[in-house]
């Protein structure tokens, strides 16, 4: 149903803002002063710092797995449930380092990609292959917001029921990932048509149902092989463990990861305004279709961790490490001021953004 909504929305003659007398997203010109300032004011903070990345990722994973063990082992249901929530939030932060892996220079953090995959990506059935080579398409100048963008849906132009369906489908993601890695990928070794289908349709963390992934090549293809092998062996081991431990540990773990996936899907709902109707956009238009939720919003680091509270700024500076985005935002805000294009992408929090999105879906078209 959502796939048909995408088709209908992208065939609509105009977006909601255009109907209200504002220019369409695709017609917004670039603010060259803002783009120049974003580059010039942040050169000295553009290097990823291993002393920040490694402890943050390792601590998030350690807390997440310890809390997950509590959720599985504790007898008190309330204590187990609380432990499960802590696990979901901590593992959510650990998982979102996959976003950083797609942008940092390959030589910036030696061993970090391997370490993250070994400790987080493969155990949670989400190796970095599912995002690398995909997310960068979302940042391509001519792809963002179009039918070729794997991470864009015109949600603001769709029906109101699309939003809860979009969020709740994430709950099934861990179960789908388990089937993919334990069954479909191994079967694809002996059934080439299935292998091609799984890669094209089910190997990317994409939300655009029309996206089809191209076959991997070169060094990336070799990395994919080892990551798929490791994830499949782990997935089969998880299923085999039920013969010794029963189904409860695995179901609890999958439920925790389901909550993690739901948190990410909620964040995705407010990462952009989702108001583009399918045409190519300028960098400034892409920025204004994206969202910053800067301080003093207190809960934002929980639902938009690892720098994702500055998602609009990230679209101006995709390679800026997450630990520098707060300082970059402060510099640009001070330099450009409040009555500027830069300030227009900042919002107060999750609730106002959700209210705006829901209101957009209810506008007559």
Topology:
Blueprint: H1 2-10, H2 16-19, H3 32-40, H4 50-73, H5 77-95, H6 97-101, H7 112-121, H8 135-138, H9 162-168, H10 173-190, H11 192-202, H12 218-245, H13 248-269, H14 283-288, H15 300-303, H16 311-316, H17 325-336, H18 350-361
Region (Disordered): 7-27
GO molecular function, one term: oxidoreductase activity, acting on paired donors, with oxidation of a pair of donors resulting in the reduction of molecular oxygen to two molecules of water
Pfam family, one: FA_desaturase
How would you explain this protein's 3D organization?
The chain is an all-alpha fold. The chain folds into two domains: 28-46 and 282-361, no CATH class; 50-269, no CATH class. The chain is 58% helix and 0% strand. The chain is built from 18 helices and no strands. The protein has helices at residues 2-10, 16-19, 32-40, 50-73, 77-95, 97-101, 112-121, 135-138, 162-168, 173-190, 192-202, 218-245, 248-269, 283-288, 300-303, 311-316, 325-336, 350-361. Helix 4 (50-73) runs antiparallel to helix 5 (77-95), helix 4 crosses helix 13 (248-269) and helix 10 crosses helix 12 (218-245). The longest helix is centred in the middle third of the chain and has 28 residues, at 218-245. The radius of gyration is 21 Å and the shape is globular. The two termini are 19 Å apart. Residues 11-21 have low confidence and may be disordered.
Question: Which descriptors would you attach to this protein?
Answer:
18 helices; single chain; 2 domains; mainly alpha; 365 residues
Radius of gyration: 21 Å
| Count of strand segments | 0
H/E topology pattern:
HHHHHHHHHHHHHHHHHH
Shape annotation: globular
Continuous helix count = 18
Biggest sheet descriptor:
none
Number of domains: 2
Helix content: 55-70%
Q: How many angstroms does the end-to-end distance come to?
A: 19 Å
Q: Poorly predicted ranges (pLDDT <50, ≥5 residues)?
A: 11-21
Structural class: mainly alpha
Mean pLDDT: 92
Strand content: under 5%
GO biological process, one term: lipid biosynthetic process
Organism: Novosphingobium endophyticum
Keywords: Membrane, Transmembrane, Transmembrane helix
GO molecular function, one term: oxidoreductase activity, acting on paired donors, with oxidation of a pair of donors resulting in the reduction of molecular oxygen to two molecules of water
């Amino acid at each position: 149903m959502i796939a048909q909504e995408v088709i209908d929305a992208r065939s609509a003659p105009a977006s909601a803002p255009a109907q209200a007398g504002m220019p369409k997203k695709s017609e917004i010109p670039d603010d060259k002063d803002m783009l120049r300032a974003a580059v010039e004011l942040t050169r000295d903070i553009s290097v990823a710092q291993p002393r920040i990345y490694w402890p943050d990722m390792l601590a998030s994973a350690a807390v997440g797995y310890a809390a997950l063990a509590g959720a599985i082992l504790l007898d008190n249901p309330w204590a187990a449930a609380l432990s499960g929530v802590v696990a979901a939030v901590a593992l959510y932060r650990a998982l979102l380092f996959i976003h950083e892996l797609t942008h940092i220079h390959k030589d910036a953090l030696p061993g970090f990609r391997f370490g993250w995959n070994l400790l987080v990506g493969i155990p949670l059935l989400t190796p970095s292959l599912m995002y690398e080579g995909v997310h960068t398409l979302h940042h391509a100048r001519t792809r963002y917001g179009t039918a070729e963008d794997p991470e864009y849906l015109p949600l603001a132009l769709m029906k109101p029921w699309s939003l809860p369906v979009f969020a709740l489908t994430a709950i099934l993601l861990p179960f789908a990932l388990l089937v993919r890695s334990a069954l479909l990928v191994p079967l694809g070794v002996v059934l080439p048509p299935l292998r091609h289908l799984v890669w094209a349709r089910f190997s990317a963390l994409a939300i655009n149902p029309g996206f089809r992934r191209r076959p991997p090549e070169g060094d990336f293809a070799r990395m994919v092989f080892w990551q798929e092998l490791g994830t499949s062996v782990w997935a089969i081991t998880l299923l085999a463990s039920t013969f010794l431990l029963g189904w409860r540990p695995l179901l609890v773990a999958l439920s925790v990861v389901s909550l993690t996936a739901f948190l990410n899907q909620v964040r995705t709902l407010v990462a952009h305004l989702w108001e583009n109707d399918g045409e190519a956009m300028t960098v400034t238009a892409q920025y204004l279709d994206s969202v910053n939720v800067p301080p003093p919003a207190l809960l934002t680091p929980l639902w938009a961790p690892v720098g994702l509270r500055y998602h609009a700024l990230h679209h101006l500076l995709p390679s800026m490490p997450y630990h520098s985005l707060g300082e970059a935002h402060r510099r640009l805000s001070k330099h450009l001021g409040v009555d500027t294009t830069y300030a227009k992408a900042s919002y107060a929090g999750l609730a106002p953004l959700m209210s705006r999105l829901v209101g957009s879906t209810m506008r007559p078209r």
